[in-house]
Amino acid sequence: MQHDVENPFYWAKYGRKLAWINLLIASFSLMLSFMVWQLWSVLVLYLNSESQLLNQNQLYALTIVPFVAAAILRLAYTFWATQDLGKWNLIKTTSLLIVPVIASIITVWLKTSFLMYLVASVLTGIAGANFASTMIYVNHLFPHRYKSMALGLSASIGNAGIGLIQVLGFLIKEIQSHSGLLATQYIEPSLLILSILLGLVFLAVIIAILVMPNMNFSVDKTAWDFSILKDKHSWYLSLFYAQTFGMFMGITSIFPINTQTYFSIHISNELYIFPIVIVILSSALRPLGHYLAHHFGSVKVTIYVFVAQLFGLLCLSYSFELTNYWFYLISTLMICISCGIGMGSSTSLITDLYQSKYVKELDDKSESTHKASMASSIVIGFSSAIGTIGALVPGISISVSESLSQDATFGILGMILFCGFGLITLGMVYQKHDLSNPFCIIKNGKYKLIDSPKKAL
What we know:
Strand order of the largest sheet: 1-2
Number of domains: 1
Mean pLDDT: 78
Order of helices and strands: HHHHHHHHHHHHHHHHHHHEE
Oligomer: single chain
CATH superfamily: MFS general substrate transporter like domains
Distance between the termini: 31 Å
Number of helices: 19
Structural class: mainly alpha
CATH topology: Growth Hormone, Chain: A
Largest sheet: 2 strands, antiparallel
């Protein structure tokens, strides 16, 4: 049966139940993808303690390169998802998580060189690419009125994987320190983390095969082409996503190194749990961003998010000067909360923009909804790829600043400039009277900005 989410009878009788089952399984798979993607941000804390000495720049490199790999692969996964949308696509992408986990097990077990660690770290980009295909899949599961909620919930569960991999690392270190269990006596903590993760990936594949219903989707396989590169909105939206999702990923990936380097808070220290709580809390706020965007307008909410982000970065800079761990946590909390809400509002901006655009251009409601869904799916995949580059900003900025001045001040200044550019761009593009902007309507012969496309319909 065709999964026609805009058909009220089908949705009430079959569609809602099928959509929720698929959403939950896809979200679990996405959570594991984020755990694998951020794997090396935890493993680097063990390498030196396990007699594999690396310098500070090498440690930063191992946490940064997965973002580059994911950014490239997300473009391929976006195309792949538009050609093969459904249960078996999800099973294939989840199964591929086995590759980076096994590669990491081999390199850590054999205690190879930095170059081999770097190769294993690059392979985790496969896991980061899963976000693009999963978001496209989820975008087709629900009718438009529920899309923001579904996308926010799935992405929030997925983002929680960033914190969960750090929780896993913390718990294993605690068990090793206090209980002396047999497993931790004979297996290095890093290998134990990898073994648990490998088991979870196999579990996710088995659940998807046995439980997940297979549905038929109406997919335009010709929708993906290079015209997206000519669409100025796709680039603007990618910049905003880089400033929210990208910054969140970048800040959280260097959490462990920063707490250890600047504040001497090691993974075995009980205070290490606070950054983990911040990551999970911020991830949980993503649906709130969708909710606020739906009620107050995605443009307006995203502007407030960017302002809060800049204020948090200014406080973060001051925390490094004071060398105050608690002020650092509060500053980081402000940045991550604003990023969490911003991830929701910026994604809503994509779906709202293209829904508004096609509703105005086409008289047929069914056709306009289908085209809007395909267009927004492709732009979500594209912006998630380009936006991931934003994750490089914190790590590179701090690393370069550390090399030049032995502190993080100039690195944070670089992040402030990046976020300030995004805020200015958002204001100039989406708050000016421009006919090409789908959020503008004509009133009394003049162009007027609207906060939500619902007001134009």
